Automatic annotation (TrEMBL):
The keyword Nucleus does not apply. Pfam families: Acetyltransf_3. Gene3D superfamilies: 3.40.630.30. It comes from Saccharopolyspora elongata. The lineage of its organism: Bacteria, Bacillati, Actinomycetota, Actinomycetes, Pseudonocardiales. This is N-acetyltransferase.
Length: 187
């Protein structure tokens, strides 16, 4: 949890709320294959996230705006051979408010804290510099080019050790002695 956001595992009753995000062509143009999802596809994704959470103890989680209780997107991880990949998708009306970076901090704290993941990758379509900036703010490093979802992407990487050094340095410089919020709960 952060000041403005909470993350939690998806529930079946989230189908309609997340479809408002996944069904928006502008939101989805750089996500996966770049197409808006149908209501059935959105429901399938939520069901897949629920199963992934059961199997791995993490998944893409529902992002809830604390002030309204609205589900405004997803953020989290998908297991891949050799590790986990970080990603997020937020409703267009919430872009430009620092929420992607904020929810990224919550997710990384969970990944490298309670979940004990050794590292994370992320991919960004090179035509999406805003997401590349979010990854940079979170401490990810550019790690080359790749082809994902049938088109070129940039791959980014962060290790648990890099994150811990970065977090310790930021806390030292700010005089902050606490931790960054609560971690999402895995059910």
């Amino acid at each position: 949890m952060s000041a403005r956001l909470q993350v939690r595992p998806f529930r079946t009753e989230d189908h309609a709320a997340i479809h408002a995000v996944y069904g928006d062509p502008e939101v989805m143009r750089y996500v996966a294959y770049g197409n808006a999802a149908s209501a059935t596809e959105s429901a399938t994704m939520v069901n897949d996230y629920i199963q992934h959470q059961r199997s791995h103890g993490y998944s893409f989680w529902a992002v809830i705006e604390r002030s309204t209780g609205d589900l405004i997107g997803d953020a989290g991880f998908e297991a891949h051979e050799g590790g986990a990949e970080f990603g997020y998708t937020l409703a267009r009306r919430r872009w430009g408010h620092g929420l992607a970076t904020e929810v990224g901090h919550v997710c990384l704290a969970a990944a490298f804290g309670r979940l004990h993941l050794p590292g994370l990758t992320a991919v960004v379509d090179p035509r999406n510099p805003a997401s590349a900036r979010v990854l940079d703010k979170l401490g990810f490093r550019f790690h080359g080019e790749c082809v994902e979802y049938d088109r070129p992407h940039h791959r980014y990487l962060i290790t648990a050790d890099d994150w811990r050094r970065r977090t310790a340095s930021a806390q030292h410089l700010s005089g902050f002695s606490g931790h960054f919020g609560e971690h999402p709960r895995a059910n």
